[in-house]
Amino acid sequence: MSRQRAKLVVGNWKMHGRMQENAVLLTEVASGASALRNGVDVGVCVPYPYLAQAQALLEGSVVRWGVQDVSAHAQGAFTGEVAAEMTLDFGATYAIVGHSERRAYHHETPELVGAKARRALEAGLTPIVCVGETLDEREREATEQVIGAQLDAVLLMLNEEQAARIVVAYEPVWAIGTGKSATADQAQRVHAFLRKKLAEKCAAAAEVPLLYGGSVKPENAQELFGQQDIDGGLIGGASLKSKDFLAICQAARTVLQ
Ligand code: PEP
């Protein structure tokens, strides 16, 4: 596997942020990211109402922006949903799909997550497909079975060319927002498994960015990102503080050197 895949670090703001604080955060992230130079792509996935603000403040910078969910439908009578094309009107690049909070609180099925990923791709967005096991599933040694099935449900909906355009984020549910990250070794094992599964579907599996998410902090980012199959991170809590988020981006830059 190439060690020279670009790194990708994406912030998931979840349901945080207000206009004034966002302006400071986005401006600081844009300015800090410009100093990283080549090799690290940076993105932020903001709440829908702030897409226009992200576009206004990030356009022309090296930082891309996106959303945290997207409808599986192109348009129509789907009250409360947001279509991929609508986000494109605001220059979005990324749509997170299948985040564990949506699977758990909104009962999103693997099939729905697959349909959302396909819709995002058809519209020209890059879906960041989240997969991850619960603590109970890990303790039952069912991690590969669970995340394998989650990934399969998505790959089933895609052709090979589409599969090559996704980003996959391994986010163990027990590590999200808990302060308890997977170890670099635990994460690498799962990433290697995901890479192998992707290779069964698409020849370009080696190029698909595989992110780790779950309590990534400036202190653990470098070790995680230094693993063979970990191409960066999906960052929740730490993406709300520019200093921490930029330190994580810098860790991604450091492992490339
Ligand atoms: C997330 O929600 O995608 C996430 C990884 O959260 P945190 O970094 O806060 O664990």
Q: Can you tell me about this structure?
A:
By secondary structure, the chain is an alpha/beta fold. It has a domain at 2-7 and 69-240: Aldolase class I (TIM Barrel, Alpha-Beta Barrel), CATH 3.20.20.70. Helices cover 44% and strands 15% of the residues. The protein has helices spanning 19-34, 51-58, 84-88, 100-105, 110-123, 135-139, 143-155, 160-163, 184-201, 218-225, 242-256, and strands at residues 7-12, 40-45, 63-67, 94-97, 126-131, 167-170, 210-213, 232-235. The chain has an eight-stranded parallel barrel with strand order 1-2-3-4-5-6-7-8, surrounded by seven helices. Helix 7 runs parallel beside helix 9 (184-201). The longest helix has 18 residues, at 184-201. Bound molecules: phosphoenolpyruvate. Residues 12, 171, 176-177, 213-216, 234-238 line the site of phosphoenolpyruvate.
Question: Key features?
Answer:
TIM Barrel; eight-stranded parallel barrel; 257 residues; 8 strands; alpha/beta; binds phosphoenolpyruvate
Question: What is this structure, in a nutshell?
Answer:
The protein is of the alpha/beta class and 257 residues long. The chain has helices at residues 19-34, 51-58, 84-88, 100-105, 110-123, 135-139, 143-155, 160-163, 184-201, 218-225, 242-256, and strands at residues 7-12, 40-45, 63-67, 94-97, 126-131, 167-170, 210-213, 232-235.
